[in-house]
Amino acid sequence: MPQSDASAQVDDDGPDVGLDKQTSSSGLDVLPPEFFRDVLRPWLHPYIVRSSCTTVPAFQRFCGVYPRPKDASEEDKHAVIDQAWKDPNQGLLFRCFSALCYVLAQFGALLGSHMYYILFLPFLFWSIDTMLARHVVWLWAYMMFVGQAIKDHLRLPRPPAVDPTVRCLEGVWALEFGFPSTHVLAVMSQAFMIVVFTYEQDYAGKNQYPLGIAVAIAFAFTAITCMARLYLGVHCVPDLIGGFIIFVPLFMAFLSVDQALDAWATTSRGALILPSAVGGCMLAMYPRADGPWVKSAYGDTAIVSGVAAGVTTASHLVALSYDRFPLLWLEVPFWSWLALVLARSVLGFAVVAVVRAVVKPLCHTIIPRLAGQSSQPSHERYAVDIPTKFIVYSAVGFTAVAVVPAVFEAVGLTLALIEN
After folding, report:
1. Which of 27, 185, 196, 229 has the fewest CB atoms within 10 Å around its CB?
2. How far apart are CA 236 and CA 55, in angstroms?
3. pLDDT per residue over 255-283, tens digit each?
4. pTM (two decimals)
5. Could you tell me if 406 and 319 are in contact, meaning their C-beta atoms sit under 8 angstroms apart?
Protein backbone atom coordinates (compact mmCIF):
# COMPACT_ATOMS: atom_id res chain seq x y z
CA MET A 1 0.00 0.00 0.00
CA PRO A 2 1.26 3.51 -0.68
CA GLN A 3 2.06 6.09 1.94
CA SER A 4 -0.48 8.81 2.55
CA ASP A 5 1.63 11.74 1.36
CA ALA A 6 2.76 9.87 -1.74
CA SER A 7 -0.40 7.98 -2.22
CA ALA A 8 -2.49 7.54 -5.27
CA GLN A 9 -5.45 8.43 -3.10
CA VAL A 10 -5.25 12.18 -3.56
CA ASP A 11 -8.86 13.30 -3.71
CA ASP A 12 -12.32 12.26 -4.68
CA ASP A 13 -11.14 11.63 -8.21
CA GLY A 14 -9.18 8.64 -6.95
CA PRO A 15 -5.55 7.61 -7.48
CA ASP A 16 -2.97 9.82 -9.11
CA VAL A 17 -2.13 8.72 -12.62
CA GLY A 18 1.58 9.31 -12.20
CA LEU A 19 4.14 6.55 -11.94
CA ASP A 20 6.81 8.18 -9.81
CA LYS A 21 5.39 7.16 -6.45
CA GLN A 22 7.02 5.21 -3.65
CA THR A 23 6.73 1.46 -4.03
CA SER A 24 4.66 -0.45 -1.52
CA SER A 25 6.40 -3.03 0.61
CA SER A 26 5.62 -5.96 2.80
CA GLY A 27 7.27 -8.21 5.30
CA LEU A 28 7.80 -10.87 2.65
CA ASP A 29 7.32 -10.32 -1.09
CA VAL A 30 6.71 -13.27 -3.40
CA LEU A 31 7.91 -11.19 -6.37
CA PRO A 32 10.38 -8.30 -6.02
CA PRO A 33 8.63 -4.93 -5.84
CA GLU A 34 10.88 -3.81 -8.71
CA PHE A 35 9.10 -6.28 -11.01
CA PHE A 36 5.80 -4.52 -10.45
CA ARG A 37 7.26 -0.99 -10.37
CA ASP A 38 9.71 -1.20 -13.27
CA VAL A 39 8.15 -3.80 -15.59
CA LEU A 40 4.40 -4.36 -15.27
CA ARG A 41 3.25 -0.96 -14.12
CA PRO A 42 4.89 1.17 -16.85
CA TRP A 43 3.71 -1.32 -19.49
CA LEU A 44 0.10 -1.39 -18.28
CA HIS A 45 -0.29 2.28 -17.45
CA PRO A 46 -0.76 3.64 -21.02
CA TYR A 47 -3.45 1.05 -21.75
CA ILE A 48 -5.24 1.96 -18.51
CA VAL A 49 -5.14 5.66 -19.35
CA ARG A 50 -6.27 5.17 -22.95
CA SER A 51 -9.23 2.97 -22.00
CA SER A 52 -10.21 5.23 -19.11
CA CYS A 53 -10.31 8.25 -21.43
CA THR A 54 -12.05 6.57 -24.37
CA THR A 55 -13.82 3.23 -23.80
CA VAL A 56 -15.23 3.90 -20.34
CA PRO A 57 -16.79 7.33 -21.04
CA ALA A 58 -18.05 6.12 -24.43
CA PHE A 59 -19.70 3.08 -22.83
CA GLN A 60 -21.26 5.23 -20.11
CA ARG A 61 -22.69 7.62 -22.71
CA PHE A 62 -24.04 4.67 -24.72
CA CYS A 63 -25.84 3.39 -21.62
CA GLY A 64 -27.22 6.82 -20.76
CA VAL A 65 -24.82 7.89 -18.01
CA TYR A 66 -24.16 11.62 -18.33
CA PRO A 67 -20.58 12.90 -18.03
CA ARG A 68 -19.56 14.53 -14.81
CA PRO A 69 -18.89 18.25 -15.27
CA LYS A 70 -15.16 18.92 -14.97
CA ASP A 71 -15.80 21.75 -12.55
CA ALA A 72 -18.18 19.72 -10.32
CA SER A 73 -17.37 20.00 -6.65
CA GLU A 74 -17.83 17.33 -3.99
CA GLU A 75 -21.05 19.01 -2.88
CA ASP A 76 -22.76 19.44 -6.25
CA LYS A 77 -21.55 16.47 -8.30
CA HIS A 78 -24.53 14.35 -7.23
CA ALA A 79 -27.05 17.18 -7.37
CA VAL A 80 -27.44 17.13 -11.15
CA ILE A 81 -29.25 14.40 -13.12
CA ASP A 82 -26.52 11.87 -13.87
CA GLN A 83 -28.38 9.17 -15.80
CA ALA A 84 -30.81 9.27 -18.72
CA TRP A 85 -33.45 7.08 -17.09
CA LYS A 86 -33.99 9.86 -14.55
CA ASP A 87 -34.21 12.59 -17.20
CA PRO A 88 -37.79 13.45 -18.30
CA ASN A 89 -36.38 15.31 -21.31
CA GLN A 90 -35.10 12.10 -22.90
CA GLY A 91 -37.16 9.91 -25.21
CA LEU A 92 -39.07 7.00 -23.72
CA LEU A 93 -37.12 4.31 -25.62
CA PHE A 94 -33.73 5.63 -24.52
CA ARG A 95 -34.94 6.06 -20.96
CA CYS A 96 -36.12 2.42 -20.91
CA PHE A 97 -32.80 1.22 -22.37
CA SER A 98 -30.88 3.28 -19.82
CA ALA A 99 -33.03 1.91 -17.00
CA LEU A 100 -32.32 -1.66 -18.14
CA CYS A 101 -28.58 -0.93 -18.18
CA TYR A 102 -28.90 0.54 -14.68
CA VAL A 103 -30.68 -2.56 -13.35
CA LEU A 104 -28.10 -4.90 -14.90
CA ALA A 105 -25.27 -2.77 -13.50
CA GLN A 106 -26.74 -2.84 -10.00
CA PHE A 107 -27.16 -6.60 -10.24
CA GLY A 108 -23.55 -6.97 -11.42
CA ALA A 109 -22.36 -4.78 -8.56
CA LEU A 110 -24.33 -6.88 -6.08
CA LEU A 111 -22.51 -10.04 -7.17
CA GLY A 112 -19.28 -8.79 -5.64
CA SER A 113 -20.65 -6.87 -2.67
CA HIS A 114 -20.34 -7.67 1.02
CA MET A 115 -24.07 -8.23 1.26
CA TYR A 116 -23.91 -10.84 -1.49
CA TYR A 117 -21.25 -12.85 0.33
CA ILE A 118 -23.07 -12.53 3.64
CA LEU A 119 -26.18 -14.07 2.06
CA PHE A 120 -24.80 -16.43 -0.57
CA LEU A 121 -22.00 -18.29 1.23
CA PRO A 122 -24.06 -19.29 4.29
CA PHE A 123 -26.86 -20.32 1.92
CA LEU A 124 -24.46 -22.72 0.22
CA PHE A 125 -23.37 -24.22 3.53
CA TRP A 126 -26.76 -24.47 5.18
CA SER A 127 -29.05 -25.31 2.29
CA ILE A 128 -27.13 -26.68 -0.68
CA ASP A 129 -23.91 -28.68 -0.23
CA THR A 130 -21.20 -28.18 2.38
CA MET A 131 -18.46 -29.64 0.17
CA LEU A 132 -19.36 -27.31 -2.70
CA ALA A 133 -19.42 -24.39 -0.28
CA ARG A 134 -15.94 -25.23 1.02
CA HIS A 135 -14.52 -25.29 -2.49
CA VAL A 136 -16.20 -22.00 -3.38
CA VAL A 137 -14.80 -20.31 -0.26
CA TRP A 138 -11.27 -21.63 -0.80
CA LEU A 139 -11.19 -20.59 -4.44
CA TRP A 140 -12.71 -17.20 -3.59
CA ALA A 141 -10.05 -16.55 -0.92
CA TYR A 142 -7.27 -17.72 -3.23
CA MET A 143 -8.41 -15.50 -6.10
CA MET A 144 -9.06 -12.48 -3.90
CA PHE A 145 -5.70 -12.63 -2.17
CA VAL A 146 -3.77 -12.81 -5.44
CA GLY A 147 -5.91 -10.18 -7.15
CA GLN A 148 -5.89 -7.74 -4.24
CA ALA A 149 -2.14 -8.13 -3.72
CA ILE A 150 -1.45 -7.43 -7.38
CA LYS A 151 -3.79 -4.44 -7.19
CA ASP A 152 -1.95 -2.91 -4.23
CA HIS A 153 1.47 -3.70 -5.74
CA LEU A 154 0.74 -2.08 -9.11
CA ARG A 155 -1.35 0.82 -7.73
CA LEU A 156 -2.89 1.61 -11.11
CA PRO A 157 -5.65 4.26 -11.21
CA ARG A 158 -9.36 3.85 -11.69
CA PRO A 159 -11.04 5.68 -14.60
CA PRO A 160 -12.30 8.75 -12.66
CA ALA A 161 -8.70 9.52 -11.64
CA VAL A 162 -7.66 9.64 -15.28
CA ASP A 163 -10.70 11.31 -16.83
CA PRO A 164 -12.66 13.58 -14.47
CA THR A 165 -15.73 13.35 -16.73
CA VAL A 166 -16.13 9.63 -15.96
CA ARG A 167 -18.91 9.32 -13.45
CA CYS A 168 -18.12 7.00 -10.55
CA LEU A 169 -21.44 5.48 -9.51
CA GLU A 170 -20.03 3.11 -6.89
CA GLY A 171 -18.02 5.17 -4.46
CA VAL A 172 -17.44 2.37 -1.94
CA TRP A 173 -14.44 1.11 -3.95
CA ALA A 174 -13.23 4.52 -5.18
CA LEU A 175 -10.28 4.66 -2.78
CA GLU A 176 -8.88 1.32 -3.90
CA PHE A 177 -6.75 0.79 -6.98
CA GLY A 178 -8.04 -0.59 -10.26
CA PHE A 179 -6.04 -3.35 -11.96
CA PRO A 180 -7.05 -6.18 -11.97
CA SER A 181 -10.79 -6.35 -11.41
CA THR A 182 -11.29 -8.59 -8.39
CA HIS A 183 -15.03 -8.51 -9.08
CA VAL A 184 -14.33 -10.43 -12.27
CA LEU A 185 -12.04 -12.82 -10.42
CA ALA A 186 -14.59 -13.45 -7.67
CA VAL A 187 -17.64 -13.88 -9.89
CA MET A 188 -15.88 -16.13 -12.39
CA SER A 189 -14.33 -18.27 -9.66
CA GLN A 190 -17.67 -18.89 -7.94
CA ALA A 191 -19.67 -19.39 -11.14
CA PHE A 192 -17.25 -21.83 -12.75
CA MET A 193 -16.50 -23.66 -9.49
CA ILE A 194 -20.22 -24.35 -9.14
CA VAL A 195 -20.38 -25.56 -12.76
CA VAL A 196 -17.38 -27.88 -12.39
CA PHE A 197 -18.48 -29.27 -9.02
CA THR A 198 -22.09 -29.93 -9.97
CA TYR A 199 -20.99 -31.49 -13.26
CA GLU A 200 -18.64 -33.87 -11.44
CA GLN A 201 -21.28 -34.75 -8.85
CA ASP A 202 -23.97 -35.31 -11.52
CA TYR A 203 -26.75 -34.76 -8.98
CA ALA A 204 -29.53 -35.65 -11.38
CA GLY A 205 -27.83 -38.91 -12.39
CA LYS A 206 -27.83 -40.64 -15.78
CA ASN A 207 -25.13 -38.29 -17.07
CA GLN A 208 -27.76 -35.77 -18.12
CA TYR A 209 -26.09 -32.67 -16.68
CA PRO A 210 -26.77 -29.65 -18.97
CA LEU A 211 -23.12 -28.62 -19.19
CA GLY A 212 -23.58 -26.26 -22.11
CA ILE A 213 -26.39 -24.36 -20.39
CA ALA A 214 -24.43 -24.18 -17.13
CA VAL A 215 -21.33 -22.79 -18.85
CA ALA A 216 -23.48 -20.27 -20.73
CA ILE A 217 -25.02 -19.09 -17.45
CA ALA A 218 -21.56 -18.73 -15.88
CA PHE A 219 -20.38 -16.64 -18.83
CA ALA A 220 -23.58 -14.57 -18.63
CA PHE A 221 -22.87 -13.71 -14.99
CA THR A 222 -19.31 -12.80 -15.98
CA ALA A 223 -20.51 -10.60 -18.85
CA ILE A 224 -23.01 -8.78 -16.60
CA THR A 225 -20.25 -8.17 -14.07
CA CYS A 226 -17.93 -6.74 -16.74
CA MET A 227 -20.70 -4.54 -18.08
CA ALA A 228 -21.46 -3.31 -14.57
CA ARG A 229 -17.85 -2.36 -13.83
CA LEU A 230 -17.69 -0.22 -16.98
CA TYR A 231 -21.15 1.29 -16.45
CA LEU A 232 -20.36 2.26 -12.87
CA GLY A 233 -17.08 3.87 -13.92
CA VAL A 234 -14.90 1.87 -11.52
CA HIS A 235 -12.93 -0.21 -14.05
CA CYS A 236 -11.61 0.07 -17.57
CA VAL A 237 -11.28 -2.67 -20.18
CA PRO A 238 -7.67 -3.66 -19.29
CA ASP A 239 -8.78 -4.18 -15.66
CA LEU A 240 -11.41 -6.67 -16.84
CA ILE A 241 -9.07 -8.44 -19.25
CA GLY A 242 -6.46 -8.65 -16.51
CA GLY A 243 -8.97 -10.30 -14.19
CA PHE A 244 -9.80 -12.91 -16.83
CA ILE A 245 -6.13 -13.60 -17.66
CA ILE A 246 -5.28 -14.07 -13.98
CA PHE A 247 -8.34 -16.25 -13.41
CA VAL A 248 -7.52 -18.94 -15.98
CA PRO A 249 -4.20 -20.26 -14.58
CA LEU A 250 -5.29 -19.83 -10.96
CA PHE A 251 -8.51 -21.75 -11.60
CA MET A 252 -6.71 -24.59 -13.38
CA ALA A 253 -4.17 -24.79 -10.56
CA PHE A 254 -6.92 -24.96 -7.95
CA LEU A 255 -8.78 -27.71 -9.79
CA SER A 256 -5.64 -29.83 -9.69
CA VAL A 257 -5.57 -29.81 -5.89
CA ASP A 258 -9.14 -29.17 -4.74
CA GLN A 259 -10.02 -32.78 -3.96
CA ALA A 260 -6.75 -33.34 -2.11
CA LEU A 261 -7.29 -30.11 -0.18
CA ASP A 262 -10.80 -31.18 0.79
CA ALA A 263 -9.56 -34.58 1.96
CA TRP A 264 -6.85 -32.95 4.04
CA ALA A 265 -9.21 -30.38 5.58
CA THR A 266 -11.75 -33.02 6.63
CA THR A 267 -9.35 -35.71 7.89
CA SER A 268 -6.09 -34.15 9.07
CA ARG A 269 -5.69 -32.62 12.51
CA GLY A 270 -3.44 -30.04 10.93
CA ALA A 271 -6.61 -28.38 9.69
CA LEU A 272 -7.24 -27.21 13.26
CA ILE A 273 -4.10 -25.03 13.32
CA LEU A 274 -2.61 -24.51 9.87
CA PRO A 275 -5.43 -22.45 8.31
CA SER A 276 -5.00 -19.62 10.82
CA ALA A 277 -1.21 -19.85 10.65
CA VAL A 278 -1.22 -19.77 6.86
CA GLY A 279 -3.71 -16.92 6.82
CA GLY A 280 -1.55 -14.89 9.18
CA CYS A 281 1.57 -15.55 7.10
CA MET A 282 -0.22 -14.59 3.89
CA LEU A 283 -1.34 -11.30 5.41
CA ALA A 284 2.25 -10.66 6.49
CA MET A 285 3.23 -11.11 2.83
CA TYR A 286 0.63 -8.64 1.64
CA PRO A 287 2.00 -5.42 0.07
CA ARG A 288 1.51 -2.48 2.40
CA ALA A 289 3.09 0.85 3.21
CA ASP A 290 5.61 1.24 5.99
CA GLY A 291 4.14 4.62 6.85
CA PRO A 292 0.70 5.89 7.86
CA TRP A 293 -2.46 3.89 7.24
CA VAL A 294 -4.19 4.40 3.89
CA LYS A 295 -7.38 2.67 2.81
CA SER A 296 -6.64 -0.13 0.36
CA ALA A 297 -7.74 -3.68 -0.37
CA TYR A 298 -5.75 -4.92 2.64
CA GLY A 299 -8.71 -4.90 5.01
CA ASP A 300 -10.97 -6.83 2.65
CA THR A 301 -8.17 -9.35 2.12
CA ALA A 302 -7.98 -9.88 5.88
CA ILE A 303 -11.75 -10.50 5.97
CA VAL A 304 -11.63 -13.04 3.14
CA SER A 305 -8.60 -14.81 4.64
CA GLY A 306 -10.31 -14.97 8.02
CA VAL A 307 -13.47 -16.50 6.55
CA ALA A 308 -11.42 -19.15 4.74
CA ALA A 309 -9.44 -20.01 7.87
CA GLY A 310 -12.57 -20.32 10.02
CA VAL A 311 -14.38 -22.40 7.39
CA THR A 312 -11.45 -24.80 7.03
CA THR A 313 -11.05 -25.38 10.75
CA ALA A 314 -14.79 -25.85 11.24
CA SER A 315 -15.00 -28.23 8.28
CA HIS A 316 -12.63 -30.61 9.99
CA LEU A 317 -14.67 -30.65 13.18
CA VAL A 318 -18.02 -31.29 11.50
CA ALA A 319 -16.95 -33.48 8.55
CA LEU A 320 -18.27 -36.67 10.14
CA SER A 321 -21.16 -35.26 12.14
CA TYR A 322 -23.04 -32.97 9.75
CA ASP A 323 -24.68 -34.46 6.67
CA ARG A 324 -24.17 -32.90 3.30
CA PHE A 325 -27.28 -31.31 1.90
CA PRO A 326 -27.12 -31.88 -1.89
CA LEU A 327 -29.69 -30.08 -4.02
CA LEU A 328 -32.70 -31.69 -2.36
CA TRP A 329 -35.20 -29.89 -4.57
CA LEU A 330 -34.57 -32.74 -7.00
CA GLU A 331 -35.75 -35.26 -4.41
CA VAL A 332 -38.34 -33.51 -2.24
CA PRO A 333 -41.15 -31.02 -2.87
CA PHE A 334 -39.69 -27.60 -3.64
CA TRP A 335 -41.85 -25.77 -1.12
CA SER A 336 -40.77 -28.09 1.68
CA TRP A 337 -37.15 -27.45 0.80
CA LEU A 338 -37.75 -23.68 0.58
CA ALA A 339 -39.44 -23.60 3.99
CA LEU A 340 -36.45 -25.36 5.52
CA VAL A 341 -34.08 -22.93 3.77
CA LEU A 342 -35.92 -19.92 5.16
CA ALA A 343 -36.08 -21.35 8.68
CA ARG A 344 -32.38 -22.22 8.63
CA SER A 345 -31.45 -18.81 7.25
CA VAL A 346 -33.33 -16.85 9.92
CA LEU A 347 -31.89 -18.91 12.76
CA GLY A 348 -28.42 -19.17 11.24
CA PHE A 349 -27.97 -15.46 10.60
CA ALA A 350 -29.18 -14.70 14.13
CA VAL A 351 -26.52 -16.99 15.61
CA VAL A 352 -23.79 -15.54 13.38
CA ALA A 353 -24.83 -11.98 14.27
CA VAL A 354 -24.63 -12.74 17.98
CA VAL A 355 -21.14 -14.23 17.66
CA ARG A 356 -19.91 -11.28 15.61
CA ALA A 357 -21.44 -8.83 18.09
CA VAL A 358 -19.50 -10.52 20.90
CA VAL A 359 -16.15 -11.15 19.19
CA LYS A 360 -15.72 -7.75 17.52
CA PRO A 361 -15.86 -5.64 20.72
CA LEU A 362 -13.52 -8.11 22.44
CA CYS A 363 -10.99 -7.69 19.64
CA HIS A 364 -11.37 -3.91 19.76
CA THR A 365 -10.60 -4.06 23.47
CA ILE A 366 -7.77 -6.58 23.56
CA ILE A 367 -5.80 -6.09 20.33
CA PRO A 368 -5.09 -2.33 20.75
CA ARG A 369 -3.60 -3.08 24.17
CA LEU A 370 -1.40 -5.79 22.72
CA ALA A 371 -0.34 -3.52 19.86
CA GLY A 372 0.64 -0.68 22.18
CA GLN A 373 -0.51 2.90 22.57
CA SER A 374 -0.89 5.16 19.55
CA SER A 375 -2.46 8.50 18.69
CA GLN A 376 -4.05 6.93 15.61
CA PRO A 377 -7.59 5.54 15.76
CA SER A 378 -7.61 1.76 16.02
CA HIS A 379 -9.25 1.31 12.63
CA GLU A 380 -6.35 3.22 11.04
CA ARG A 381 -3.59 1.02 12.45
CA TYR A 382 -2.45 -2.00 10.52
CA ALA A 383 -1.44 -3.76 13.74
CA VAL A 384 -5.02 -3.44 15.02
CA ASP A 385 -7.33 -3.29 12.02
CA ILE A 386 -5.94 -6.32 10.13
CA PRO A 387 -5.78 -8.79 13.07
CA THR A 388 -9.22 -7.64 14.23
CA LYS A 389 -10.83 -8.31 10.88
CA PHE A 390 -9.03 -11.64 10.51
CA ILE A 391 -10.09 -12.88 13.95
CA VAL A 392 -13.67 -11.59 13.75
CA TYR A 393 -14.33 -13.19 10.38
CA SER A 394 -12.53 -16.37 11.33
CA ALA A 395 -15.06 -16.60 14.14
CA VAL A 396 -17.88 -15.83 11.71
CA GLY A 397 -16.73 -18.53 9.27
CA PHE A 398 -16.27 -21.07 12.07
CA THR A 399 -19.70 -20.28 13.50
CA ALA A 400 -21.46 -20.59 10.15
CA VAL A 401 -19.94 -24.01 9.43
CA ALA A 402 -19.65 -25.63 12.87
CA VAL A 403 -21.88 -23.88 15.41
CA VAL A 404 -24.95 -23.11 13.29
CA PRO A 405 -25.37 -26.72 12.02
CA ALA A 406 -25.21 -27.90 15.63
CA VAL A 407 -28.01 -25.47 16.45
CA PHE A 408 -29.99 -26.82 13.49
CA GLU A 409 -29.60 -30.33 14.88
CA ALA A 410 -30.65 -29.20 18.34
CA VAL A 411 -33.88 -27.56 17.19
CA GLY A 412 -34.76 -30.17 14.57
CA LEU A 413 -34.07 -28.22 11.36
CA THR A 414 -32.54 -31.29 9.69
CA LEU A 415 -33.02 -33.40 6.60
CA ALA A 416 -35.43 -35.64 8.49
CA LEU A 417 -37.87 -32.73 8.82
CA ILE A 418 -38.59 -32.62 5.07
CA GLU A 419 -38.07 -36.31 4.36
CA ASN A 420 -40.84 -37.38 6.76
Report:
1. 27
2. 7
3. 999 888 888 888 888 888 888 888 888 88
4. 0.81
5. no
